[in-house]
Write a structure and sequence with these properties.
The structure holds two protein chains of two kinds.
Chain A lengths: L5 E10 L2 E11 L4 E5 L6 H8 L7 E6 L2 E3 L4 H6 L2 E4 L11 H6 L5 E2 L2 E2 L1 H14 L15 H14 L4 E5 L7 H16 L3 E5 L3 H7 L2 E6 L2 E7 L5 H9 L5 H6 L6 H4 L4 E10 L3 E9 L3 E6 L5 H9 L6 E6 L2 E3 L4 H6 L2 E4 L3 H5 L6 H13 L7 H14 L16 H13 L5 E5 L7 H16 L3 E5 L3 H7 L2 E6 L2 E7 L6 H9 L7
Parallel strand pairs in A: 3-10, 3-11, 6-9, 9-10, 15-20, 15-21, 18-19, 19-20
Antiparallel strand pairs in A: 1-2, 1-4, 4-5, 7-8, 11-12, 13-14, 13-16, 16-17, 21-22
Helix pairs in contact in A: 14-15, 14-16
Chain B lengths: L1 H5 L3 H17 L7 E3 L2 E3 L1 H24 L7 H17 L7 H29 L3 H20 L3 E3 L3 H8 L1 E2 L2 E2 H18 L3 H10 L1 H6 L4 H27 L1 E3 L7 H11 L11 H20 L4 H19 L1 H10 L13
Antiparallel strand pairs in B: 1-2, 3-6, 4-5
Helix pairs in contact in B: 2-13, 3-8, 3-11, 3-12, 3-13, 4-5, 4-6, 4-11, 5-6, 5-11, 7-11, 9-11, 12-13, 13-14
The chains are: A alpha/beta, B mainly alpha.
The complex binds adenosine-5'-triphosphate and magnesium ion.
Magnesium ion binds next to helix 1 of chain A.
């Protein structure tokens, strides 16, 4: 057997109040794809950050290809051949795509940056990922998924011995995921060791060679993929058996016709915005879950933003509860009991400085106005309820939300809108980065809420999720809403895929 | 121990104590407090009294900075409201009449409200970058103050007005009570309501706040108005101290000291979380430093340099990244178990 390229021994890391890692061992062999698995808050990202020098461990040693190392930061780690895509995309929104890919290692000619070369190489690199976008446009103008792809492109271009991908696929569609996997396999075959974190079990089984499982900051074990079937893996991750997912599958689909007999809660008539989404019409009834399906960049998020007034529509009209309403801004939308849970929790969702409690009550407090603070006791009740319901961990609501693991942050954002008890809940990738246990909980919650009369617009790159929850599915292609299907027994994933892909559009 | 060390006020307090200790060693009478004519006197009390205007300006600045902005015009606003108040009093037949002094204060505050609203409109409504928007008033405001005083130094002889700067109440300088009252008021305004949290939210992540339904324009507007009002009160104090208004020099450069105080106090210039207690400590540190420079007979040429060095030191020790470098590099590269205790 070859020698591991990376050995981490007895790594411990304690944050105030949390033992994030407790004597963890981890090995990585050249030419393998190694999945690091665990629930939200298990310590996966922390282990990665200890390796790349973002955090220094309290205890333990790191050995890279036979020499003990301790990196001062990600730059040093990258220089030593450890290339990383962190969980939260941390590129510069105000630089161009090409600049983001080559920042710190720009191609030069006679000492100055060779822009033409840079753009050309950026395009070639993205082409490997099958992504055809304008590399001179600012990164911030692209969706989170594209940003994620750009981060990946940057990482795979760095000459690396180790490639680390922390939930790289969380906002990607099946097609991009396949593309990424192809490249991962290629890189593996050249002898690079790849560390891969994800909450999608099927992805693990389609690409990984070996699995390491963490639970509550402790190592559960390291297994070759063949020796750990899916059920056993889940058991190792959560420490008990999981049955919620199974129960959810049996949900009978409610009758769409009955739902749509009432007046719709919201009706968008020819609503659109130039260059963003072509005019579309969509109605959502109370108690109805409408799924939005479509490829990366097809305009799903943009539709959601128009419905919430986050961007202003420049054509069409909205009818809410039978009355015509301009959806001028989020304040107006919230006034109509509409809630929007953004896919981009870091830049559009949470305020990292504020505590978990403050983040959860933020929207409710904003609606009341600052002069009428929500009584502290009421805050604590509400927060405690949702910390429990969504199993947000650590459960102390007084820590800054930025110290939570990615999945737990996502739950906080969800809680913020759930406590406002909206009549229309727009969920853009609500289960992004959330572990399987919590994901089932959230899906169950969506079903419960819609049973209780709430209208839900559900956006997810995961088609199965959309199919499982929605009564009606609207399909987006090339920034057009191309069809709406009742989600009855005749509709299947292939069906939707066809609708998405037909007419030869590439979806970019 | 480490909990204490991690408290965000640990370093500012330590620096203040160190400065006071240095003074006490240099001049043992420094810490002495005497009772004269029923008033307490002493260097330490002087420091607190003299720092009152800076505390006021810095408190307002804290809110503005928390929204992610900055207010460079506070010095000019000090000068303008001081000038208006003094000018009004100087025109009165009886300068000692309490009623006319109160009217003068109301006039000064009223003008400050207008000036604060001007800043607020430029930043929150029109969307000009705060540093540029307030630079306008910083520069133009001095001219305005000159206009009010007609280019002269207005001298007044009003004992009620003088009280604001140098009077006493319950054996202590009156200015201390003013600063205390404003602090309590602002603390209540921000922490008893949701204003503080909303300001922190806007400053911490403007886009997320917008999507959470916060009307950030109003909040930012309000912060500039509060800042201007605080500056006006400081302007009264500064002019009352010397019983005269000089449009040119009143409150000159106080915006820089105020920004420093805020930063020393732990509020990030990027916006977000703000700390009044830290700001007050920061203001006290800056005033102590000024007093120290005088007391130690450091030549005027080097005094600014000395101040700068101390300020840089304070900011550096507060930066976790900087402390980390020192505690982390020393042990061998492999194991970082032993953190240097401090
Ligand atoms: N900077 C920090 N300060 C304090 N606590 C932290 C910090 N970073 C992480 N933690 C805590 O450490 C624990 C592990 O977090 P980590 O981000 O490693 O989880 P994770 O396994 O990546 O989870 P997820 O799947 O949600 O991304 C969590 O309890 C988290 O709250
Ligand atoms: Mg993580």
């Amino acid at each position: 057997m070859t020698h591991p390229v990376l050995t981490m021994t007895s790594i411990s890391k304690t944050f105030p109040g949390v033992r994030a890692l407790d004597g963890v061992q981890f090995r990585l062999f050249p030419g393998e794809i190694h999945a690091l698995m665990g629930e939200n808050g298990a310590g996966k990202s922390t282990l990665i950050k200890v390796l790349t020098g973002v955090y220094s461990p309290d205890e333990g040693a790191i050995d890279l290809a036979g020499t003990p190392v301790s990196f001062g930061g990600p730059m040093q780690a990258a220089a030593a051949g450890v290339s990383t895509v962190y969980q939260e995309v941390n590129l510069c929104a105000n630089l161009s795509v090409a600049e983001n890919i080559f920042i710190g290692r720009e191609p030069r000619r006679l000492g100055s940056i060779h822009w033409g070369e840079m753009r050309r190489r950026a395009r070639a690199l993205l082409a490997r990922l099958d992504l055809d976008i304008d590399v001179t446009a600012l990164l911030g103008t692209y969706s989170l998924a594209v940003q994620q792809m750009v981060a990946i492109a940057r990482a795979i271009d760095i000459k690396a011995r180790i490639l680390i991908l922390d939930e790289p696929t969380s906002s990607l569609d099946a097609r991009e995921v396949e593309q990424l996997f192809r490249i991962m396999r290629q890189l593996r075959d050249t002898g690079i060791a790849i560390l891969f974190v994800t909450h999608f079990l099927d992805q693990v089984y389609s690409v990984a060679d070996r699995i390491t499982v963490l639970r509550n900051g402790k190592l559960v074990g390291e297994y070759p993929i063949a020796e750990l079937p899916q059920l056993a893996l889940v058991e190792k991750m959560i420490g008990k058996e999981l049955d919620v997912l199974e129960r959810l599958e049996e949900q009978p689909k409610r009758d769409l016709a009955a739902l749509e007999a009432s007046t719709p809660f919201i009706q968008a008539d020819g609503v659109g915005r130039k260059g963003v989404v072509a005019p579309f019409s969509l109605t959502i009834h109370g108690g109805e879950v409408v799924g939005l399906a479509g490829l990366l960049g097809s305009g799903r998020t943009e539709v959601a933003r128009l419905l919430f007034g986050a961007d202003r529509a420049d054509s069409g009209r909205f009818v809410v509860n039978g009355a015509q309403t301009p959806m001028r801004n989020p304040v107006a939308a919230i006034g109509h009991d509409i809630a929007f849970c953004s896919e981009n929790r870091r830049t559009e969702g949470l305020v990292g400085d504020l505590t978990v409690r403050e983040n959860i009550i933020l929207a409710m407090q904003a609606a009341r106005g600052w002069l009428r603070p929500l009584p502290r006791r009421r805050q604590d009740e509400l927060v405690a309820k949702y910390v429990e319901a969504l199993s947000i961990r650590p459960s102390d609501p007084e820590i800054p939300v930025r110290n939570l693991s990615g999945g737990n942050q996502q739950k906080v954002l969800l809680a913020r809108w759930l406590i406002t008890e909206p009549r229309l809940l727009i969920l853009d990738e609500p289960t992004r980065g959330i572990d399987i246990g919590a994901k089932a909980e959230i899906q169950k919650l969506v079903v419960q809420l819609s049973d209780g009369g709430m209208a839900v617009l559900f956006i997810s790159a995961e088609l199965e999720e959309v199919l499982r929850l929605s009564h009606k599915i609207a399909v987006m292609r090339d920034r057009n809403l191309v069809s709406q299907l009742a989600n009855d027994d005749t509709v299947s994933a292939e069906h939707i895929m066809q609708a998405i892909a037909s007419a030869g559009g590439t979806g970019q | 121990m480490s909990a204490l060390k991690n408290h965000r006020l640990f370093w500012p307090v330590l620096v203040l104590v160190a400065l006071l200790t240095a003074n006490a060693i240099y001049r043992p009478s420094f810490l002495a407090v005497q009772m004269r004519d029923g008033h307490l006197y002493g260097s330490v009390i002087d420091i607190v009294r003299l720092s009152a205007p800076l505390i006021l300006v810095a408190l307002g600045m804290t809110l503005v900075i928390a929204t992610g902005g900055i207010d460079l015009s506070v010095g000019s606003i000090c000068a303008i409201s001081g000038a208006v108040a003094c000018f009004y009093i100087s025109q009165q037949p009886d300068q000692n009449s309490l009623a006319s002094v109160l009217t003068a204060l109301v006039l000064g505050l009223g003008l400050a409200l207008v000036l604060g609203a001007w800043n607020g409109v430029l930043v929150a409504i029109i969307g000009i970058q705060p540093i540029i928007a307030t630079l306008i008033l910083m520069v133009a405001g001095r001219g305005l103050a000159q206009l009010i005083t007609e280019g002269q130094i207005i001298t007044i002889n009003s004992s009620p007005y003088k009280t604001i700067g140098v009077g006493h109440l319950l054996t202590l300088p009156f200015a201390i009570f003013v600063a205390l009252a404003v602090t309590v008021l602002l603390a209540a305004l921000t922490r008893r309501t949701a204003l503080g949290m909303i300001i922190e939210s806007v400053g911490g992540n403007a886009e997320a706040s917008r999507l959470a339904g916060i009307r950030s324009r109003r909040i930012i507007f309000l912060a500039y108005v509060i800042s201007a009002v605080c500056a006006a009160i400081a302007g009264f104090m500064l002019t009352a101290n010397v019983s005269s208004a000089d449009g040119n020099s009143a409150g000159l450069w106080i915006e820089l000291d105020a920004i420093l105080a805020v930063v020393i106090g732990g509020t990030s210039l990027a916006g977000g979380r703000f700390f009044f207690s830290g700001t007050i400590l920061g203001a006290l540190i800056i005033q102590t430093l000024t007093t120290t420079v005088y007391a130690m007979d450091i030549s005027p040429q080097t005094s600014l340099l000395f101040k700068a060095v101390v300020v840089i030191a304070v900011c550096l020790i507060q930066a976790p990244a900087f402390r980390d470098k020192f505690t982390r590099r020393k042990p061998t590269a492999v194991s970082q178990k032993e953190q240097v205790p401090a």
